[in-house]
Amino acid sequence: MITRLFVFLLSLSPGMRKRVWRWWYQTMARRHRGADWTFMNYGFADPKAEPLLLEESDEPNRLLIQLYHHAANQHKLENLKVLEVGCGRGGGASYVARYLKPASVTGMDLCPQAVSLCNELHSDVENLTFQEGDAEAMPFEDESFDVVLNVESSHCYPHVEEFLSEVRRVLRLGGRFLYCDLRLGGTLLNLEKQLAESG
């Protein structure tokens, strides 16, 4: 019953979709502020890949980290300026900042409670900052980043084409968009079209 109501609310309008997702993620950030939950993705396992060398404290999140590694490792990030759009609880941005040696990582999320939580949980990571912002209207200057990373977040955005336009705007010339998300089979062709049209 609750699931049906949630799905119905998401289908009403793009504006309603954004408000419902924001409320959901705000509620999760407000209700559970513990350091035991810093990732929100479904994880990834590649039986052919070399095991990642992780600190002992990161081992409980191995599968979740592996998804970030798989997405972010498509391009060398060392000494680059990275933006993660839809950073959630900040675990992925923290992993990228600590292990992949970028100059800086900015985690951006729509939900102020999530950004506040990220700042609490990851304050010890020197090259990592968090900022509130909308994926469809990012609060950054043109050509601000070398890399934009988006992991299992864009399925929540009402206007993916606006998000992709913003990605293009904030990327420097020659920059990279590193992306992975969940999609229903029937929506893949539309996503491929949106990606192709975004340049």
Automatic annotation (TrEMBL):
- One GO MF term, please? sterol 24-C-methyltransferase activity
One example of a Gene Ontology biological process annotation: sterol biosynthetic process
Which InterPro entries does UniProt cross-reference here? Erg6_SMT_methyltransf, Methyltransf_11, SAM-dependent_MTases_sf
UniProt KW keywords: Transferase
Cellular component terms per the entry's GO annotation = endoplasmic reticulum
Q: Where is the Methyltransferase type domain?
A: 83-178
Protein's recorded name: Methyltransferase type 11 domain-containing protein
**What organism does the record attribute this protein to?**
marine metagenome
